[in-house]
Amino acid sequence: MDPLPQYPPSTIAAIATPPGTGALSLIRLSGPDAVAIAGRATNVDASSLLPRTARHCRITDEDGRTLDDGILTVFRGPRSHTGEDCVEFTGHGGILVTREVLGRFLACGADPAGPGEFTRRAFLNGKLDLTQAEGVMDLISAQTRLSLRAARGQLEGRLGQRTTAARDSLLETLAHLEAWIDFPEEDIDPQTGLLLRTRVHHVLTEVESMLATADQGRILREGVRTVIFGEPNVGKSSLLNRLLGFERAIVSDIAGTTRDTIEETINLNGIPLRLVDTAGVREAADLVEAEGIQRTVRQIESADLLLEIADASKPRPAEAVFPASAAKHLLVLNKADLGEHPSWSTVSAIRLSCASGEGFDALSAQIRNSLHLAEVDWGDHAVAINARHQASLERARTALKAALALLDDTSTDPELAAIDLREALDSLGEIPGRVDSEDLLGVIFSRFCIGK
Q1: What does the pLDDT average to over 70-94?
Q2: CB contact set of 359 (below 8 Å; sequence gap of 6+)
Q3: Same domain, 67 and 104
Q4: Are residues 356 and 403 in the same domain?
Q5: Is 136 among the domain residues?
Q6: Is residue 167 a part of any domain in this protein?
Q7: Are residues 56 and 96 in the same domain?
């Protein structure tokens, strides 16, 4: 990727380790004066240090008094993370001492770094494409094994490589089409029309393949919104507590104990589940319970997965009417340890006991299978796109389909198809950052932590 140096050549500094007390802290500097500032803040000549060689030093104040001692490392640009001269100081991890050291670097000429500014400079200097920069944030925030694997794949550039390959193929196709338009007398290729359609269709297939991972990407980043619902006293809160491994919700024999929704996240074999315990659905006894039931209805409408809980020891109730939902629906028969009422004998359901823990392995397996979330379904090179990627790919798909329709109609001017292909080209270029937009970069990097 070509560098895009579109920022003021200032030198920035920030604490790169989490706030709090620890054994070590790390402070980063990046910019044209990083080495000179390090020399002013320490007792060593930083300009004489060999790149990537650790050197013990002392951080001193303006009067020569020691603030901290630690390890200084210099990284010369462009062979650094940001592509600029960089310095890292590793010192003691106290809150106050770390702030004092940062303050010394700032007093010596550095500016405070904003959120994501180091990674943004890496992008602008061609060290990362935009999908890799987003992969940094996904890696930091990953909570499960599969989300970590997807983030690592994105950080390694897999999504950027796929979109760049599709864009390059489309660029070649557009060049061919425009040559055919501009120089019809040259007879560039007697099969030009067929070849163009084939190439555009190939790019469209690749775009649709990446779009198919949108749900996977959303699930990995946000979790599966899993709503636990059913009649009162069937064990909804007990199920939530058993899945979480601790007593999160109050469990009582009194109907209507749960009045509001309770939400917690668990890691189910690499998949984040956002569990939502809801109020039991029945005729409300008061206005507060009625509001809780209305919230249950809204949660059902927005769910990815519905776990309907029933009491296996009691007769099967009449069919309840619940709001329409496109979510996957699993019926769970609780209290299997108390014996099953004959009316449930022909019903396909997951049978378990929140009291004994029986049947929870079967529930976990059924959840994975119903959502196609077993690791084998993700493949070895899964690409999980985010909402920004999805929007760009959807625009590209629309433009590509419009271009194909125009190419199939021999009565239309091929220049119209070229316009659609250019739009698809721009949309694909937005994903790795080939189309520069200051607003877009501002939104993306604002989600990063300071020091990254």
Answers
A1: 95
A2: 336, 350, 351, 352, 353
A3: yes
A4: no
A5: no
A6: yes
A7: yes
For the segment 375-399, the average pLDDT, to the nearest whole number, is 76
* In a shared domain, residues 344 and 274: yes
Please tell me the pTM assigned to this model: 0.70
Give the integer Cα–Cα distance in Å for 55 and 308: 62
Whether 2 maps to a domain, the answer reads no
Same domain, 294 and 421: no
Q: Both 275 and 356 in a single domain?
A: yes
| CA pseudo-torsion sign 197, 198, 199, 203 | positive
pLDDT tens for each residue of 296-330: 677 777 778 888 888 888 888 876 656 666 678 88
Q: CB of 385 within 8 A of CB of 138?
A: no
Determine the Cα–Cα distance for residues 61 and 165; give it in Å rounded to an integer: 52
Note down the domain range covering 313. 220-377
- Asked whether residue 267 falls in the same domain as residue 247, the answer is yes
Residue 139: both structure tokens together: 């890696």
Residues in the chain, overall count: 452
Buried/exposed 136-150: b ≥16 CB within 10 Å, e otherwise: bbbeeebebebbbbb
Residue 116 φ/ψ region, left for φ over 0, alpha for ψ in the -120 to 50 degree band, beta for the rest: left
Asked whether 27 and 113 are in contact (CB, 8 A), the reply is no
Whether the per-residue pLDDT at 185 is higher than 70: the answer is no
Q: Is residue 101 part of a domain?
A: yes
> What is the tens place of the pLDDT at every residue in 123-154?
889 898 888 888 888 888 777 777 777 788 88
